[in-house]
Amino acid sequence: MLLSGGLDSAVTLAIARAAGHDCIAVSFDYGQRHRIELDCARGIAETLSAKEHRVLQIDASSLAGSALTGGGDVPHDRSDDEIAHGIPDTYVPARNLVFLSMALAVAETAGARHLYIGVNAVDYSGYPDCRGTFLKAFEQVANLATKAAVEGAPCSVHAPLLDMTKAQIVQRGLELGVDFGATNSCYDPLDDGAPCGTCDSCHLRAAGFLAVGVDDPRACV
User: Fold this and answer.
1) pTM above 0.85?
2) Domain hosting residue 102, numbered range
3) Are 12 and 40 in contact (CB under 8 A)?
């Protein structure tokens, strides 16, 4: 289970646990500017009873060139139309491909046959590695590239949030008892860790809670 510490990955972990899986939560330290997500991931893994939580190190220079790794400014105050078009500066080159590949290695070593990832293609911000076509292609590659699959134990990639709106994700998380106050979605947190309230991710998160009609415990005051 890829666990970023954000709202979507927390709900995905809760879904995987509800499906009866003993989950190894995998997070990544890749030089991201919003490192509060790693603290959130640790707490989420514990409260949702992950079997284990691993933080894997990646050379920050390998995923450079993104606003999330210090390569420019995080966009703020963009409209729904602006968010819906183009690939934003917060895109991290091949991030989900790298993350899934490393998680696949963890899974094969642990004898696990299911990979869960919290990507979403409805309210997403234009990331090419959040699409269903990418995930299907990765699953095919995974089952060509691993000893486990060749010997009859193929891997399945699950993205249960893929076709859900942010409101539906929030609602599902509430049903599963996810503590949203322990999650961080912000691309550009303040020095004290509070969300900025104006980046794309904060914008989409706020719209989701508003649509459901509940308060976000991490909303800006």
Assistant:
1) yes
2) 7-212
3) no
